[in-house]
Amino acid sequence: MNSDPHLNAKTFSWQPNAKLLLFVLLMTPLLISLGYWQLDRAQEKREILAEFKANQESQPVGFEQLDVGLNLQYRQVQFVGELDASRRVLLDNRVRNGRPGYEIFEVLTLATSKLKVLVNRGWVQASLDRNQLPEIAPVLGQVKLRGTLYRVLKGGLQLDDGVRTVESWPARIGWISTERATEVFANDFFTYQLRLDSDSVGALTTGWPTVSVQPEKHTAYAVQWFVMAIVLLLLTINANSNLAAWLKFKIAKTESDAL
């Protein structure tokens, strides 16, 4: 008697392959987990975009009017103070339109508070000669800066740039946050940095994407992972049984009986 189920199409039967089933048992939960992870990422991006829209619709306020108990991410503000161009940070490896460059950070001393504010003035193109740093005109005197509050989002990978202490200014570093600014500048900083608007005093080339990947793209990725899990299960069933032959036999028999 032949044990190959594919040669007996009249009845559905199994012929399990232990190694293949073990592989599927390991891969299926992984594919499903990746799908749900992408759905979670899509929801996170929706919340970020909703937060951005709500705070961008608010009127700009001064530092004294801010409620620090609220989520101030993307809140529009206008701060009065003096920028310190003598201690400038160049955030390295910032690419715009395929061109390498730097984002320029300076410290704002507020007119009405002892706290410092880390200010992102925007992007400048880098020279092909790494030893040549860009020349940037300083902002002199007390000015009113307009922009958006921003705190670095969690989950990003920060590579070690090897910088522990700054020995000379300007300093070129690989990443910056308000927490790291406390170490780099040896000052206490407001928990949000200020990204300047394009029409603000001191603005360079500004404009930052709210999210790098839109929620719809994450959802599409999730669908792909779920489809892959379903396809894997169907292929496994077919490889461990005579499903294809059995279905073909049933369809042929149904058509024959109908004649």
From TrEMBL:
Signal peptide start-end: none
Native species: gamma proteobacterium HTCC2207
Entry-linked InterPro entries: Surf1/Shy1, Surf1/Surf4
Location relative to the cell: Cell membrane; Membrane
Family in the record: Belongs to the SURF1 family.
Stored Pfam families: SURF1
The keyword Transferase appears for this protein: no
Entry membrane topology: Multi-pass membrane protein
GO cellular component, one term: plasma membrane
Top-level taxonomic group: Bacteria
Parts of the chain that traverse the membrane: 20-39, 220-239
Keywords, in A-Z order: Cell membrane, Membrane, Transmembrane, Transmembrane helix
Protein's name according to its UniProt entry: SURF1-like protein
